[in-house]
Amino acid sequence: MRDTAPRAARGRLPVEWLGILPFVAFALLFLILPTMKIVFGAFQSGDGSFTFQNLIDLNTDSIRNAYWTSIKLSLVTALLGCVVGFAMAAAVVFGGLPKAIRSPLLTFSGVASNFAGVPLAFAFIATLGPAGLVTIWLRTEFGINLRAYGFNLLSFWGLVVTYLFFQIPLMILIITPALDGLKREWREAAEVLGATAGQYWRMVAFPILFPSLLGTFALLFANAFGAVATAFALTGPQLNIVPIKLFAQIRGDVLGNPNLGYALAFGMIVLTGLANVIYIVLRTRSERWLK
Amino acid sequence: MKRLVAWAAFIGGCLYFLLPLVGMTEFSLKMRRGEYSFDAYARVFGDPRFWETFGYSLTLAAATIAFGVLLVVPTAYWVRLKLPQARPVIEFITLLPLVIPAIVIVFGYIRLYNTSSWLPLTGSAFGTDILLTMGYATLALPYMYRAVDTGLRTIDVATLTEAAQSLGAGWFTILARIILPNVLVAVLSGAFLTLAIVIGEFTMAALLNRPAFGPFMQLLGANRAYEPPALAVIAFAITWGCMGLIQLVTRFSKHERAKA
């Protein structure tokens, strides 16, 4: 006879927990312990004793610059991604565009948000690089030399333009359901009470959407902050942002101190972790409205 | 007026998305001077390393999907059936790979499983392949778990289990012949998304020094002019194919259910 009475199992709790043992073992071995190794390593000196020295050593010009560039890059791409993605999602949901556009846009967003990494960099080099389609077109047709205007694909703003290719679709994918959740009744109720469209957005829709917006912003921030492949394929190892620096450190200990590498990675976890805590907290708050 | 603004936002966005796609396609066709040709593609497809690395990544994707299904389906099923109190914890763990950057996870692997550790996975090529597969399974975990868990929500797990058990089915039979077929669409969606993630992944494969497709593309990008955009077109087509297959199986299942 097999045990078929799940409700009678209160006294034998440990047996039930055996069922998730494989999952727990996997999570420990390949997710939690490796991360712990980095976290503990960040607080250890070369001989294994506890120290804050690694974190203090992060405070050099080069590493500070890397963090600052990374944070700026993530903030700017998250902000622009949110604004443009919101505009496109709102155009499709409320703007009176034909219904037929909606499904292709969401499918395309699914594709584009996954089209990151090395091939994305190639696509932008072929478009905005020195011999790219748009660069040459602007030069031959209008005599505009992008380089003369200070635009360089292999620079901060080049990275911003490239990162937006996966940031905007991610925003569209997450915010469209939230916009769908804005009930028609709320708008009608506001209009009956004499609200203008601006007042409706400012006083009803925006406060409801605010947690989703800020939460998605945090997710986009983390998304950009951890991205390695796109930047690496675009600029090679010389661009000074944290993931590239960490990549070089793992490959060849360029900082000359393994524990400093741990500290560098620890800083990344702290920042993306912080952004995601904001996202998770705000998402649970916004889901209350979207039932 | 409102419609005009909406169209402007939409078309502006579309232009931004279309230009790089047009740009890479056009560039990939320009290898022969003065005329369009498929020379770059011929070069790419004629490169034995393309097939080697692509095959390697495909194999690893298959292993990742098989492992992911074996890990996630029983776990999600068991949590729904017997351990609802563990749900928040499990969900939190499955979301962690979105929080911890892949480069940090693989850094941990390299330090934890090096040749002088208790489990020297990086000591051999096969061990590293296993480690890389586990890494990919970790990256795919948030998507796989969410897909399967959503699939399980639509069926009555408890009743199906009791019915199967009263007919004498063991746990393996229940999982393989009752639960899995019922969440097959969700599993396939998760599988295709995993494929899309794994096939072009760069960071983990490069740092573990395995001959995967992502590092191959990067290497070619650093040395050639016309092949990289051709590779980008191929990679885009693969991603598009994976997403298309997800839509297809989802639509197919809705059709089935409507008929039933």
Protein model, in words:
The complex is a heterodimer of chains A (291) and B (260). Chain A has 13 helices and no strands. Chain A is an all-alpha fold. Chain A has 2 domains: 1-42, no CATH class; 61-287, MetI-like fold. Chain B contains 12 helices and no strands. Chain B starts with a helix and ends with a helix. The relative contact order of chain B is 0.13. At the A-B interface, helix 2, helix 4, helix 5, helix 6 and helix 8 of A face helix 1, helix 3, helix 4, helix 5 and helix 6 of B.
Structural class of chain A: mainly alpha
CATH topology of chain B: MetI-like fold
Helical segment tally of chain A?
A: 13
Work out the largest interface and the residue count of each chain.
Answer: A-B, 82 and 87 residues
- Tell me the number of structural domains of chain A: 2
Order of helices and strands of chain B: HHHHHHHHHHHH
Fraction in beta strands of chain A: under 5%
Report the average pLDDT across residues of chain B: 90
Q: Identify the CATH class of the largest domain in chain A.
A: Mainly Alpha
- What is the tally of beta strands of chain A? 0
The main sheet of chain A comes to: none
Q: Which stretches of chain B of 5+ consecutive residues score pLDDT under 50?
A: none
Shape of chain B: globular
Give the SSE order of chain A as H and E letters: HHHHHHHHHHHHH
Helix content of chain A: over 70%
Helix/strand class of chain B: mainly alpha
Radius of gyration of chain B: 22 Å
Helical content class of chain B: over 70%
- Using only CA atoms, what is the Rg of chain A? 24 Å
- For the report, how would you describe the main beta sheet of chain B? none
